[in-house]
Fold these 4 entries.
Entry 1:
Amino acid sequence: MNNKLNLEINKAKEALQNEPNGRLILSYRKKIWSAFGPCEMDEEKAIITKPLIKRLKLAFLCAEKVLPIWQEVYSDKYDALHILKYVKEYMDGLRSWERCYNMFNEFSARLTNLESGPLRPFAAGNCVSLVLGTALFDEEVDDEDEAYDKDDDEEDRDVDLWDASFAASVALSGLYWSDDDNDIEKRRDYWNWYLNEAVLIAAKA
């Protein structure tokens, strides 16, 4: 693990410990994604590089953690495992970017129709979709000059701007601004897993 990533993980852990809602705000997540390395693009298409593979592995781990939440409610509507299989095949050169882009749009449209349904399975489905989105477009890595404590609250509140890790946190713990579904301890446990285990596994990808 490189020194920059270790530094970002430690800063994120401290921030998480002091966050009253048990959340890891987006600016810290971006710092970690950035520590894996730069994002390289060919117009809108992410170029497959080692940093992308690491960020994708991290997203994949998040999806695997919440996949049962989706499967319990919506397995009869769409097989999310099929999406994850497409991701692997794309990364192995067996699927074209264009075909996966079409699959991403198709699954995203299905999710839009589920927005009025139960929150947590919907969020789990979004997490799976965003794994494919990460493979296609990469994550929005951090501007090095961006402040650590910048609270990107508006992005986390907009479902269209979620990343896979945040979608997984919603699937496991609800919304941190909700009066009805907001499990702070489960959220903190999830982000501790993310920092202590998932990021380290992804760094080795």
Entry 2:
Amino acid sequence: MSRSQDLSKLLAKTLSVEEMRQLSRELPDGHVLKLNILEGNLTRSSFASDLVEVLVRHKMLDSALFERWVERVPGQREAIEDVARAWDITLPLTVVNHSRVPRGRRGKMLGVGGALVLLVVGIGSSFVQRGSERVCFAGRDGVPELAHAACATYLDTIRAYNERDLARYHAGFAAPMECFYDHTNAEIGQRRSELRGSLDVAPASVSFLRVEGADRVVLCDLGVYDRGDGKGRKPHNKVIVMTQRGGEWKIAVETSREAAKCYQSPC
């Protein structure tokens, strides 16, 4: 497999079509990419291949692009670094896991030449808290901070699905759930034991509906389920209720308008 194929394959695995579009718009010549890649319901694989072809042709593959990619999917940093090395690109060290740093050396790593270095610590999880980055609800004012946090956590659970990380995906749900498509007190491990196809869900696919108290946020997921077998894509328009359990955001409700026995979806 060529390095271009490796790059497009990893793009398709880690980013939705909309997220790839957003990544291209962040480039200095993003308008070139938009002109050369047709709009429409392309598959993730075909869009990724087209994107890589344009990036290579216009010599836009640089460390900045790979760094922004890592920011979007921090759990895939090692895989992204491997692909970057194939293009003779080395990413700077920006993430330090304290579980791998000897205790006596931690203090020394906090400063280099008098400059303060911000360390993002991740122990036992690939999720990086994004709070203040506000990855969701772009252009909408007045959305409470807890809604931004809940949405960021939900998107990380979506990434786990697309990365086939079953344990991380299941960990994103409350145990038990209040409602899962007509089933009350549902255990996600029993109801969704396999991760098939892919979820084309970007920040722009998630809408904020309301906050219910200090630990409950109601969202609409207007993304698309891609069967991945060439037999179609299905908009899933589902309601997602995020609740805090033990200080962490979890999915307590996931259902559609059609499955309304235990929760009435407004989406």
Entry 3:
Amino acid sequence: MKPRSVLLTTLLVGLATAPTVEAAQNTVSGNYRVDAVMTEGGALLQGPAEVYVLDAGGEVVARRHAVPAVFDLGTGDFTAAVVYGHAQARGAIELGTKPGNNPLNLEAGEVRLDLITRDGKRARLSDVSWRVYRYRRTEDLGTEVAESQVKRPEFILDAGWYEVVVRQAGASDSPPTARHVIEVESGRRQTYNIEVD
């Protein structure tokens, strides 16, 4: 299973198994617009994303492929969920708010990764494989959340700590070319230069 589908499955399972809290859901009907931001007070996002509306039982009742997303909902209790890059957010649907006044906060950041040599020059490796894992304080890797085969990948990730593993593409059994811990901060765009021999 690819990391993106794992993220989506985790989000949907989490929504379906979340305890029902009366204050977290509202009985609504009518048009509803789902907006999202990278961080509290940030600019509203526009563009490709996966946007879902789930009913009180956790079933997906509507889906769009960009934010903002507008849904025509019948009467019921609904939750909105957004997956943007490898970040996700969810919240109760509240009708009657003006568009953009109640966006889902992804609490996410953007990360660009690059390889450099010990003397600070851009590494000339070709065909590299990047894998991003949740950071664990052990030698074992955490859950994989993203992967890429491009030379200088960019990821949108939930705020937190991650471990990046770089290998020559197709060499999944060999030791990593580089392994580095990074921090993703909400609303920030960061570049990490990872040193290789």
Entry 4:
Amino acid sequence: MKNIALEVGNLDGLFVLIFLVMFGPPVMLTLIGIILRKNKKAAKVFYILAVTYLIIGLGLCASIMIGY
């Protein structure tokens, strides 16, 4: 029998998707900032974007998981 990610009673796939939306882009932006460390201005922009995305993502996704 095939395992469906979003069955009616099993919402583990949805939890993983929300977790990836919360933490995926900030991690990628931080890694890009680390790679661009020689160009301090560009690295700083990526760090600021990562923190901003993390704050907004945690706020929105947490409110979705809590149920408003």
